[in-house]
Batch of 2 targets.
Target 1
Amino acid sequence: MNSQPDDTRFRTFGRAKGRTLTVSQQAVMTEHWPRLEIRPGDTLPDGPIWLEIGYGMGSHVLHLARTHPDMSIIGAEPFLNGTAKAVRGAAEEGLDNLRLFRGDVRELMTEMPDRCLERVYILFPDPWPKSRHNKRRLIRTAFITELHRLIAPGGSLIFASDIPHYVDWALTRFRSHARQTGGGFVWDGSDPKQPPENWPGTKYEAKARREGRTPYWFTFTRV
Ligand SMILES: C[S@@+](CC[C@H](N)C(=O)[O-])C[C@H]1O[C@@H](n2cnc3c(N)ncnc32)[C@H](O)[C@@H]1O
C-alpha cells in the first residue's frame, strides 16, 4: 500500500449528500451501481485510463466515455446526487468503459500503482475563496506529487478554474513542484481562455459564465 498524501485531513468538498434520491434514481442506482463502482484497491480497467476528479453532475465524464470508447474512463465524486445522475447517464447510453468512485479521490489514488494514468481532468475544483478556507483547496503540493506519481511520463493533466486567485495558487504550486523535481508538469502555454477541442462545457462552468466570471483552462504534460 502506498503512503497516504499528508493533506487528506483537509476536506476539499462541501456537502456529499444533497436531496434524497428519488425512487427512480434509487432504482437506477440499485441496478447499475454495482457494475459501475470502482473502489480503492480494485483491479484497474484495461487500456489507457483517463481520470476525472470531481465530475459534479457528470456531463463531462459521460462525454469522455461516449466520445472515447477505446479509453477506460474513471470518474471520482463524493456528491451522491451527481453520482446518481452519472449512473443514470451511463445506463441510458450503455457506456461500458466508465467506472465511478464515490468519495474523496485521494482515497482511490493512494491505492493506484505508479504511472497507471494517461490523463487526468480537474475541472473547476471547489474554489474555497475565503483565505481561511484556502487550505481546503484540492491543488496542494502533496496532491501534485501524487498526481505526478500516477500520471505516466508524456501523459497530461487538464485543470480549469474561473477563480484567478486559484489559478495563481495552482500555477505557483505546479512551478515549484517542477523546480523541486527537475521536471514535474509543464504547461503547454496555449491560450488559457480557449477550452480544449470539442469542449462540451460543464454545469459549474455555465454558472461561472452566468455570474460574469471567465473560465481558464491549462493543459500540462507530465515530464
Ligand atoms: C465546483 S464543483 C465542479 C463540478 C464539475 N467539475 C463542473 O465543472 O461542473 C467541484 C466538484 O469537485 C468535487 N470534489 C471536491 N473535492 C473532491 C475530492 N477530494 N475528490 C473527488 N471530488 C471532489 C465536489 O464534490 C464538486 O462536485
Target 2
Amino acid sequence: MNELLEVENVSVRYGALEAVRNVSLSLAAGETLGLVGESGCGKSSLGRAVLALEPAASGRVLFEGSCVHELRGASLKQFRCEAQMVFQDPFGSLNPRMSVGAAIEEVLYVHGLGKTKAVRRERAAELFENVGLNPDWLRRYPHEFSGGQRQRIGIARALAVEPKLLVADEPVSALDVSVQADIVRLLKKLQHERGLAYLFVGHDLAVVRDMSDRIAVMFNGEIVETGSADQVCDGPQHPYTQKLLSAVPDIDTALAL
Ligand SMILES: Nc1ncnc2c1ncn2[C@@H]1O[C@H](COP(=O)(O)OP(=O)(O)O)[C@@H](O)[C@H]1O
Ligand SMILES: [Mg+2]
C-alpha cells in the first residue's frame, strides 16, 4: 500500500442531510487530487472528514494506513501535524491582535517545534521566505496584508508543522485572477520542494486542472467522475462534468494568466 490517503465509502451527515454520500478516493504522496463541484455539493464537508474535523457517518478515512477517526492522544497529535488545512479566507483564522510572526511562533511552540524563542523566530523567518514574503513583515498584523499575502501567511502557518498533506479548501477562490495564479505557482513550488500531497478543492475547473494530476468531480454529495486532469477535462464522461466544462469561458486564456 503506497497511498498516503484512502477515503473508503465515506458519508457525512448533518441530521437528516447527507452532505457527502459514499465517497471513495485515494491520494499518493506528492500527488495533487483536485476536487471540483459547485457550491454546496459537499467539498468542504469531505475535506473536514479527511482531516477528522468532522465525523464520518459511515466508511473510513485511512492516512498512512490508520483510520483517522480512531486516532487518539499522541497519534492524533502527530496526524494534526501531518495533515493540515489551508482555508479560503485565512484572515478568519488569524488573530487580529497578534502579529503574524507571533502567530507562527505560537504554532511552533504548541507543537513542540523549536526549543527556544530564538529558534522559533528563525524558523518563522524561513517559512516567510519559503512562501515569498519578506521576513521583516513578521512584526506586522493581519490587517496590514493584502488577500494574496494573507493566503501566503496561511500557507506558511500550515507548513510550520511539516505536513505531508494539505487540504486546500478553495485557497484561491476569493482572490483576483492574477493573484490566484501567483498562489497556484507557489503551491506547485512548495510541492516540488517538499513532496507535499494536496487535496485541492475548487469550483473553477480551469484552476483545478492547472493544479491537479487527477480530478474528482463532485455533484450533490457524490463523486460522479474521476480521472487524470486531462481525461476529465478533454473527455468528460458525466453530463455534470460536461456542464461544468461548458461554464469555463476559455480555458486557454485562464491557464495563460
Ligand atoms: N456544519 C454544518 N451543519 C449543517 N449543514 C451543513 C454544515 N456544513 C455544511 N452543511 C450543508 O452541507 C452541504 C454541503 O456543504 P459544504 O460541504 O460546505 O459544500 P461545499 O464546500 O461544496 O460548498 C450544504 O447543503 C451545506 O448547507
Ligand atoms: Mg466549501
